[in-house]
Amino acid sequence: MLELLTSSGSGSARTFDNIVTRTFTLVCLALLAGCGFTPQKLAYTDPQVQELLRATEAASSNRFGFTPVATNADIRLEESSGAYDRMLHVYGRTSRTIAFRKQAKGFTWIGEQETYRGPKQYTTVDGTSFEEICLTYELQRVAHYRLNHLNITYWGEDKRLVNNEDLRLQIILPVLKEWGYNVEQIGAVNGNQPPRTETN
Predict the structure, then answer these.
(1) Which of 27, 83, 111, 116 is most buried, judged by most C-beta within 10 A?
(2) Nearest alpha carbon to residue 118 among 106, 130, 105
(3) pTM score, whole prediction
């Protein structure tokens, strides 16, 4: 096979090189998946997901502002050995990531980030995007936000929010309601975290 590919000229040699490159890429992807770098899709009821969601309950006093994880959400589990040991990627009405650190008796919640998409679009040098509000809370350094603080970031052109470096829940809740979100699902509204078994 090697002789057939290389004896007919540079075009066939390039074909062989492409085959080798594609094969190498597929092998690398398979190895990465086996090492846990590629997030694995899991059901809400999967024991691994439930273990991590129970860990979030133990830290609920630090997570005001986040909504429950819907039972019908698209959930992916990522394993890592960097700033976190496990991360849940959750896609539904909102999109979020939840980071965990491995401890002797299980996992501990160390940070969460939830993003709300708005209805309007805006254009920058990088292209056109939907406006977004992002909530981030970290106990340990994951994405380099201020620790032990609910960080709120807005991307878009809403004059009520743009260039405001001190956004608070009281400011964004009316906007999220305008965007069609059920703000009663947000934990800080009533001073406690809603159950995470609800479907939003």
Answers:
(1) 111
(2) 130
(3) 0.75
